[in-house]
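Severity: low
Component: inverse-folding endpoint
Summary: output formatting inconsistent between runs
Steps to reproduce: submit the following structure tokens with default settings.
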């Protein structure tokens, strides 16, 4: 079973909102960037130190990784589950697949991720 590959397209001068794509379909327009960045672990304390949200996400999940990690995908799944009606439709119609993906991603969070710089959740 493969993890889905979400693609984040940031806000540009031509686009009013950033968006999230799944399999070539735009499934969510990001209206609140603060909530989006918070879903990946970005905090207001980080902002105060001058760390930019996209730099934080790049450094934590993507930079120097060999494979795309489950931690990143889990952050997308959890964010979209709350914020995207289209994602919830997709999730509901493919419940067996998405439930397994979600469970695998949560399990990966219980140990130090070998793909990114995520540490285990304290339990």
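Observed output (run 2 of 3):
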């Amino acid at each position: 079973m493969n993890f889905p590959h979400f693609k984040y397209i940031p806000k540009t001068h031509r686009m009013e909102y950033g968006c999230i794509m799944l399999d070539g379909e735009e499934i969510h327009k990001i209206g609140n960037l603060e909530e989006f960045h918070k879903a990946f672990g970005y905090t207001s304390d980080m902002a105060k130190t001058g760390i930019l949200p996209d730099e934080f996400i790049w450094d934590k999940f993507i930079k120097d990784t060999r494979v795309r990690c489950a931690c990143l995908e889990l952050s997308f799944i959890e964010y979209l589950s709350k914020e995207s009606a289209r994602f919830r439709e997709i999730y509901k119609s493919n419940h067996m697949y998405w439930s397994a993906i979600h469970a695998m991603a949560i399990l990966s969070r219980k140990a130090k991720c070998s793909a990114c710089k995520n540490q285990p959740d304290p339990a």
